[in-house]
Amino acid sequence: MNVRRQHISGIAVAAATALGLGTLSACSSDSEAAGNTDKFDVVASFYPMAFLAEQIGGDHVNVTSLTEPGQEPHDLEISAQQTAQLQESDAVLYLKDLQPAVDKAVEQAEVKNKIDAATLTTLEDHGSVEHEHEGEEAAAEEPAEEEEHALDPHIWLDPVKYAEVAAGVAKSFEKADPDNAADYKKNAAALTKKLGDLDTAFTDGLKNTDSKVFFTNHAAFSYLAERYGLTMEAISGLDPESEPSPARIKELQEEAKADGVTTVFYETLVSDKTAKTLAQDAGLKTDVLDPLEGITDKSKGDDYFQVMESNLTALKTALGAK
To answer: Cβ-count burial of 311 within 10 angstroms (0-12 exposed, 13-18 middle, 19+ buried)?
Structure first.
């Protein structure tokens, strides 16, 4: 353990989940008090990484999230306090290319165990998907959009890929903290089983539907769509704050009619204005499909599994599951 450890306050231990693991219901970002504990200190970049660390680490870890609940993770800026916190940690768990400020801070931090989730599974380039239909005029106006064609980081929305990351995180924990390796291995196995059950629920629930096409606010669900034989059409690109072109809006209106789309999904951490305008103009319903970048009071569930189950219910309704 790090002898210069900082005390991580504000972590509440919730009731045991169906996994039989203790779920840490909140991650603190308070690094004011300095102290020394016997726990493995993990700094996570945002909620999906913090959840993995909590589930795998159990009682052996103190998990701190750099992204506050309700904060849009793409926009995160690292404070001096958080930079110091990184320096004091035993491990940092992050997802490279999702949060540029985190990438820079991790690169500069003298942390022995830097765990990049992007290296623990296979990322794909989904950047071209949301632009390939926008027309030659739009393409001509946006010649410098290559940065949006980066590898898609939203791997946690695919339970299979998330399980692959979990396995890699567990191995990293086992190596860094060998005294508790057996528990990390056991907790990871339980988490993997629950992710497998979630995968089965999505596979069975979305197997027979009236439509296979769904509209979302931003392109967070490509991995999920690919996994379960669906087609995601995003109003915006990988960046949730980007504005769609008029041509894109018109195209989506036409596609809604052609493919029997009933619902435009929006999310909790960014504005729903564009999604609701499209839905109103096209005579469609709206609902929440949560990209799980953070848990807030608006979330339809208290943790990853509850929100994913809510997402499945919303998809089944929108796609006309039988």
So the answer is: buried
CA pair distance 16, 168, nearest whole angstrom: 24
At position 53, the amino acid (one-letter code) is A
Task: Report the distance separating Cα 315 and Cα 219, nearest Å.
Answer: 15
One-letter amino acid for residue 168 of the chain? G
Q: What is the DSSP string of 178-198?
A: GGGHHHHHHHHHHHHHHHHHH
Residue 108's identity, in one-letter code, is Q
Q: Which residues lie below 8 Å from residue 216, measured CB to CB, with a gap of 6+? A: 232, 233, 234, 235, 264, 265, 266, 267, 289
CA 125 to chain centre: 17
- pLDDT tens-digit readout, 162-179: 999 999 999 999 999 999
Name the nearest CA neighbour of 226 among 243, 214, 239. 214
Express each pLDDT in 264-286 by its tens digit: 999 877 778 888 888 888 899 99
Measured CA to CA, the distance from residue 285 to residue 276 in angstroms comes to 8
Of 26, 97, 75, 42, nearest to 299 by C-alpha is 26
| Mean pLDDT of the 75-82 span | 92
> Cα(1)–Cα(4) distance, rounded to whole angstroms?
9
User: What is the DSSP code string of 135-167?
Assistant: -HHHHHH-TTGGGGGSPP--GGGSHHHHHHHHH
What H or E segment, with its residue span, contains residue 172? Answer: helix 159-176
Helix axes 181-205, 159-176, angle to 10 degrees: 180
Token pair recorded at residue 128: 């071209």
Of all helices (H) and strands (E), which one includes residue 65?
A: strand 61-65
Distance of CA 224 to CAs 97, 206, 313, Å? 19, 11, 14
Q: CA–CA separation, 98 vs 199, rounded Å?
A: 24
